[in-house]
């Protein structure tokens, strides 16, 4: 059991840490296929409602229709998404192993709607020959998952989804992050403690939307079937907030990552507390009940101590530094000196 819980914590931390680092590069990317999706305060306020409707819809589907056919349909859907997500995840790593003389041709998948001035891009994905190799490797994992539903294949897809979510989903400011986490805090508590809907869906849903690790691994090996699980939402939602704080750290230009490390440690504390409470009471726990106060409270306390609360809440994801009076003049004088 200790091995299972420890592995879940490690698997949750990896996509948050590396996804946050990659989100910094993603924010500066000019490649259309790597542009982040920005979540606004309106999106954050709507998200718990949309998530609740989706969750309830899945619950009713499982109650009304055959679970076998629903899972078959969902498996095909996540099979395609999983291959793309895993390919995008391993591509930067695999690029280091390709020989320098490896032929690299550029491709672009462009899908538009309309014509002339009304033409609108729906899909604009740029890739090369190396990406195709990564796609082929990911397809092997996809076939393995589709045929066996093995927990290792499930986790490979789950980790890829989590890392891509943290990397590509960006909150536009800290206030939006607080709205999103606060709304999902209520959502998680209600659907876990108020009803059996979330637990039922999590156990019935055969798709890589959760990280799992067998508690009987030492007894049954790779064929173990008694799993501890953690939903991807409990990784991605706090993860995108932690990634935002990393980008805020960088914007301060102090060469420190105080808020990032504080929130990262807060996540470890919150997740550890979740597992402890779950082990004591032998009942599924809404992880966001413990993660949200920790991930928001710890960095806010640090900001209060450092006197940077105003800077934290005024930080905008896509904002550019305001030009101080005289900056342009000084810049022109410096240019003139260099020319002379």
Automatic annotation (TrEMBL):
* Record carries keyword Transferase: no
Q: Which domain of life is it from?
A: Eukaryota
Signal peptide range in chain numbering = 1-26
Which Gene Ontology terms of cellular component type are present? cytoplasmic side of endoplasmic reticulum membrane; Derlin-1 retrotranslocation complex; lumenal side of endoplasmic reticulum membrane; rough endoplasmic reticulum
Q: Where are the transmembrane segments?
A: 45-62, 69-90, 168-193, 227-246, 258-281, 287-305
Q: Which residue stretches belong to region Disordered? A: 315-340
- Subcellular location as annotated: Endoplasmic reticulum membrane; Membrane
**GO BP term, pick one:** membrane protein proteolysis involved in retrograde protein transport, ER to cytosol
Name the PANTHER family on file.
Answer: MINOR HISTOCOMPATIBILITY ANTIGEN H13 (PTHR12174:SF23), SIGNAL PEPTIDE PEPTIDASE (PTHR12174)
Family recorded in the similarity comment: Belongs to the peptidase A22B family.
Protein name (record) = Histocompatibility minor 13
The source organism is Chelonoidis abingdonii
Read off the lineage from the record.
Eukaryota, Metazoa, Chordata, Craniata, Vertebrata
Report the gene name: HM13
């Amino acid at each position: 059991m200790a091995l299972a819980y420890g592995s879940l914590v490690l698997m949750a931390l990896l996509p948050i840490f590396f996804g946050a680092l990659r989100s910094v590069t993603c924010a500066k990317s000019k490649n259309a296929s790597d542009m982040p999706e920005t979540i606004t305060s309106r999106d954050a306020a709507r998200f718990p409602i949309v998530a609740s409707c989706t969750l309830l819809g899945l619950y009713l589907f499982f109650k009304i229709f055959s679970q076998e056919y629903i899972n078959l349909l969902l498996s095909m859907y996540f099979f395609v998404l999983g291959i793309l997500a895993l390919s995008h995840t391993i591509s930067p790593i695999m690029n280091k192993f390709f020989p320098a003389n490896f032929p690299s041709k550029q491709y672009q998948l462009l899908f538009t709607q309309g014509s002339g001035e009304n033409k609108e891009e729906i899909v604009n994905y740029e890739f090369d020959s190396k990406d195709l190799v990564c796609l082929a490797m990911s397809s092997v994992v996809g076939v393995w998952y589709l045929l066996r539903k093995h927990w290792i294949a499930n986790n490979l897809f789950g980790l890829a989804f989590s890392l891509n979510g943290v990397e590509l989903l960006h909150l536009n400011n800290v206030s939006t992050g607080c709205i999103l986490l606060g709304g999902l805090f209520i959502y998680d508590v209600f659907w876990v403690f108020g009803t059996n809907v979330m637990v039922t869906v999590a156990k019935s849903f055969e798709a890589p939307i959760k990280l799992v690790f067998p508690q009987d691994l030492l007894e049954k090996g790779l064929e173990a079937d008694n799993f501890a699980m953690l939903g991807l939402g409990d990784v991605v939602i706090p993860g995108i907030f932690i990634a935002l704080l990393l980008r805020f750290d960088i914007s301060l230009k102090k060469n420190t990552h105080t808020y990032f490390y504080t929130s990262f440690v807060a996540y470890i504390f919150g997740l550890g507390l979740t597992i402890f409470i779950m082990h004591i009471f032998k009942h599924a726990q809404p992880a966001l009940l413990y993660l949200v106060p920790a991930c928001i409270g710890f960095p806010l306390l640090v900001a209060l101590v450092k006197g940077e609360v105003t800077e934290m809440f005024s930080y905008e994801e896509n904002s550019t530094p305001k030009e101080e009076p005289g900056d342009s003049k000084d810049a022109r004088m410096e240019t003139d000196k260099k020319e002379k």
